Amino acid sequence: HVFLHDGPLRKLPPTIRVVGIAAPAQNCVKSASVRGAPVKIAIIAWGSVIWDSRNLKFVGEFEPTDLRLPLEFCRVSGDGRLTLAIDEQFGKVCPTRVAVSGFEELQRTIEDLRARENTNLKNIGFIDRLTGRHSARMAGGHAKIVETVSSWAAANGYDAAVWTALACNFAEPDRANMLFSVDAAIKYLEAQNVET
Known about the structure:
By secondary structure, the chain is an alpha+beta fold. It has helices at 48-51, 106-117, 143-155, 182-195, and strands spanning 2-3, 10-11, 41-45, 58-76, 82-86, 92-101, 124-128, 160-164.
């Protein structure tokens, strides 16, 4: 088992697995740890990120956690599938999973999750407990989520955390083109099945 971290390879205990290796990112700002210890960044996940992580860099596996977030199948993907997104209005509080990022730099972790999700940086939520920075203004107005994740990270020994912060797009004309509700989602799925 080896881990590449901007330098020479070093051995890790056999119980730790690192997925993937990435080239150093340009213009990264590394969070400074006031403890002098390595920065520990949580990747919070649900849905396909857990079972289809692609090239996302993380240590070990996505493990169950006590962090629960309001999730709903209210986002229509590019291929027409309904996918889970954080939704404070319609979402049901659901369990999430967490893995430790393979990077110690928050910006690299954000970019890594952005690449996995094939989205814009504004759609990646984050909190940085070391600097106080967070994504409440960027990530779909998820201010309550930022507070929840920040408290959870503090209680669980994480210096920072990232998550997918894609918003509900159900009502957009090129998606379902109707206001989201559970009934509307069922009608949308039924129409998708008729078309295929």
